[in-house]
Specification:
Distance between the termini: 21 Å
Strand content: under 5%
Number of helices: 12
Shape: globular
Oligomer: single chain
Structural class: mainly alpha
Helix content: 55-70%
Length: 366
């Protein structure tokens, strides 16, 4: 059951995350923020997912010996440094080292994050997990598999030819894949929304199927289910109802995903924990949808107040601002506070409530 203390801590944490995000959006140079900073923050996510595996197993021993906040700060530092290094390599490889990181580089980073979630949550590090259960190797595989699969997705699927009239277009960086980049991103992020919805349901009803040691079959069933559901949602909104892919992306999957971090991270996965599935999953989806809707309104309000005047009214400018604020900045910051720092120092505050039981940690992985 959720205590008053957990509720207070969740509210304060969300306020802190939003404050930090808006500080970044306001005080950092806009050109630097929407290129280098966005790239580094997005590339931080695979390392945060990998660190979650280490946290769950108290590995390596150096981490296990440390206490908070040293433990959390070390993890955050390692993730940040690793993300910066990978961002620089990405800039000179995928980005060709041309001026500031251009849209293809950011899109590649998004593909890497999506691939990371698929590998870590849906496939549970298969097939590497079949050969070793050492968390250090599994954590490394999360990063490298995410980068590799993201590269394949980027090269085969993304096309930026529609941007040829834009100064942001660089033909040498365009992989000229099968689909328009906005459509690919919209579909990929929709699959992530479906993945986390399954997490809310503890992968019910697939988890009820008795497959024994046939991990591949179970993962394949999960994958096909996710693709079928995500594909149906995407086609319904974008193809049948003719929603603009970017408008759909930001107001749909992105806002819903951000809303899901309320029960998953802010409440450490403990919300409605006394209720059995699938009822619990339904309640969590409702909470996530409401939270996503409200946060969407809040972030768009901030966009209207903080977006540079020269960009107000520009095509997708508000949507891109909100997308960056929600998932590029707020999400990694939220994971750093809730998973790495484990709500420190808020968890030490003695709130005067009926129940002062400590908040537990929920690492963002299945």
């Amino acid at each position: 059951m959720i205590t008053y203390k957990q509720g207070y801590i969740a509210l304060i944490t969300l306020t802190l995350v939003i404050t930090l995000t808006m500080s970044i959006m306001h005080f950092v140079d806009y050109a630097f923020m929407e290129t280098w900073l966005v790239l580094a923050f997005i590339m931080c996510v695979p390392f945060q997912v990998a660190s979650g595996i280490l946290l769950e197993t108290n590995k390596p021993r150096l981490l296990a010996r440390l206490s908070l906040p040293s433990k959390g700060l070390l993890i955050i530092l390692c993730c940040a440094v690793s993300a910066i290094l990978v961002s620089i390599v990405t800039y000179y490889t995928v980005g060709g080292g041309i001026e500031l990181p251009k849209p293809p580089v950011i899109n590649y980073a998004i593909a890497v994050v999506v691939a990371t979630f698929w590998y870590a949550i849906v496939w549970q590090c298969w097939p590497i997990a079949k050969f070793t259960n050492k968390p250090e190797w599994l954590a490394l595989s999360v990063v490298f598999v995410g980068l590799f699969l993201g590269y394949l997705i980027f090269n085969f699927s993304f096309s930026f030819e529609f941007m040829q009239s834009s100064p942001l277009y660089e033909e040498t960086l365009d992989p000229k894949g099968w689909f328009k980049s906005w459509n690919v991103v919209a579909f990929l992020v929709t699959t992530v929304a479906v993945i986390f919805t399954f997490v809310l349901f503890d992968f019910w009803p697939i988890s009820q199927i008795k497959l024994g040691n046939k991990a591949f079959v179970g993962n394949l069933i999960k994958s096909l289910s996710i693709i079928a559901i995500a594909g149906s949602i995407y086609l319904l909104f974008v193809n049948y109802w003719d929603f603009d892919p970017v408008i759909y992306l930001v107001n749909g999957p992105i806002s819903y995903i951000f809303g899901m971090f309320v029960p998953l991270n802010l409440f450490s996965g403990q919300l409605f924990s006394h209720i059995k599935q699938p009822t619990r999953g339904i309640y969590l989806v409702i909470v996530s949808a409401i939270a996503g809707f409200l946060l969407n309104l809040l972030y768009f309000w901030f966009a209207q107040q903080m977006l540079p005047e020269a960009l107000i009214g520009g095509l997708y400018q508000q949507e891109l601002w909100v997308a960056n604020a929600m998932l590029a900045f707020s999400f990694p910051l939220l994971v750093a506070i809730t998973a790495h720092l484990q709500f420190w120092p808020l968890c030490l505050i003695n709130f005067k409530t009926k129940n002062n039981s400590p908040t537990t940690q929920k690492v963002m992985s299945n």
